[in-house]
Amino acid sequence: MGTESWWSKFISTQALGQVDECSALLQFKESFAINKSVSADPLAYPKVSFWTREGAGNRSNCCSWDGVECDEDFGHVIGLNLSSSCLYGSINSSNSLFHLVHLQRLDLSDNHFNFSQIPSRFGDDLSSLTYLNLSNSLFSREIPPEISKLSKLSTLDLSFNYQKVDDDSFPLKLTNANMRSLVQNLTAIKQLHLNWVEMYSTVPDILVNASSLTSLQLCGCRLNGEFPIGIFHLPNLEVLYVYYNSNLTGYFPNFNRSNALKKLNVAHTNFSGQLPTSLGNLHSLIVFVISSCNFHPNVPSSIENLTQLSYLSMSSFYDFSKGKMGEFPSFVSNLTQLEFLDLSDNEISGPIPRSLFQLKTLEYLSLSGNNLSGLVEFDQFSKLKKLKELDLSNNTLSVEIRNDLSATLPKLQTLALGYCNLTEFPNFLKNQSELTDLDLPGNIIHGPIPKWYWNATIETLLGLRLDENFLTGFDQYPGILPWTNLIFLTLGLNMLQGPLPIPP
What's the number of domains the chain is made of? Predict the structure, then answer.
């Protein structure tokens, strides 16, 4: 999940495989059922189905099998890529996989290993591994401490091994030890992905010395303590995701122009402090998400210059206890490569600056849940040709939409304009044939839902929220709901009259 694939660079070899290793692979195959529903990738297929004995003496050349990579000189199996292979069953310590002691790269992601525990033999017997991906494969229970023995690893991905069934959850855990014990020997690590591993740990400061690290993903791990600020300065770090760790504190340092960060997401953490203007030096940044944190912009320079002032009351416009202050952060206009920007729920005030519409590469923009105010001329968004998702909800904005915008706006997939003082159904929706989610609650839209709208979105729409308006019903009563794939619909607190359509 999200890990760079070593397999994409692999060119198959026709070396003759070792007999015992080929037999081990066949035994591995027989230890699992094939269930095409367990792999999420739409291109998933059972690679092991094509593994068979053949040739003289019923010998197998496993080096030619799908997903198998062999050493050219000796025929040892050194790579096994069974990602999205529809495997279902448990892996235990007796599995023949651990006979492949020359393995260097192993990818078992996107399968279903039936909530089995990761066997300790991964660390004991597969000591040559440089790449290990067990993500999204429903392993559970405690990560064995033996994993820390894999000192040659450049990639370790144990993410998304979590499933909740009713009130029972089956997470992968690191609770008998801490994160430091897992990573302390991984001196060559480049990609460390432990998303949704339950660990209740601090982020170890030894990662400040992980100079090879390019991607660190620790989302939803229940981390606590203060995030080591030195990690932001790692010379090769491109991806840093620590979102959904509400007890994780931290702050941003000053960034220089040589910083390599491309993706930064600290949403739903307890990061706080000023947003340094040096964030504008991150010219390679394509993802920037700080939603639901405690950041605030810099104190205005006019205040900083009052060096002789002995007392200043700011209570009318600054709440120090919450750490919230100020207008739209000016450094954003320097992040010209941004594709994904989420500043929601940060109490940003004032108008949306026109400089935002110069970010030509934006595909996702969320500014919801702030204190933004003023008039928004919606035609400005026609400048963002790649925009697919837009959320301006829950501010104090007034959005003005001209009736002649249909041909100029980008094709949106998600549009949320809740509480934006809209007075009518926007006409530009006639041409929004790719829309899957539309949120327009809390406006002052009058009259019926126009027929042209459901004609435009009849096959694409999944979610529609129109509550808290002045809608009277449907134009040309359809009898049954017109949207064939609709999952979610809210129409409460309107002025509906007559019968409502029923689900298809």
Answer: 1
Q: Is position 358 within any domain? A: no
Whether the Cβ atoms of residue 445 and residue 399 lie closer than 8 Å to each other: no
Q: Rounded CA gap, 269 and 282, in Å?
A: 21
The CATH number covering residue 83 comes to: 3.80.10
| Length of the chain in terms of residues written | 504
Residue 51 lies in a domain: yes
pLDDT in tens, 82-99: 999 999 999 999 999 999
Asked if residue 87 is part of any domain, the answer here is yes
Sign of CA dihedral 467, 400, 409, 454: positive
* Residues of the domain holding 99: 10-114
Nearest-CA neighbor of 199 among 166, 176, 175?
175
Measured CA to CA, the distance from residue 346 to residue 297 in angstroms comes to 10
Q: Which residue, chain included where needed, has tokens 């059972």? A: 46
Which is it for strands 68-70 and 77-81: parallel, antiparallel or unpaired? antiparallel
Note whether residue 499 is domain-resident: no
Dihedral pair phi/psi, residue 8, rounded to 5°: -60, -20
Nearest C-alpha neighbor of 393 from the set 334, 437, 330 = 437
Distance CA 146, CA 148 (A): 5
Burial code (b: 16+ CB inside 10 Å, e: under 16) for 56-82 equals: eeeebbbbbbebbbbbeeebbbbbbbb
DSSP 233: G
Separation between Cα atoms, residue 423 and residue 4, nearest integer Å: 47
Q: How far apart are CA 427 and CA 352, in angstroms?
A: 23
Say which DSSP state 328 is in: S
Query: In this structure, what token pair is assigned to residue 204?
Result: 């170890």
pLDDT digits (tens, 9 = 90+) for 272-296: 999 999 999 999 999 999 999 998 7
Provide the whole-model pTM.
0.90
Kindly give, in sequence order, each residue whose CB lies less than 8 Å from that of residue 349, ignoring residues fewer than 6 positions away.
Answer: 326, 327, 370, 371, 372, 373
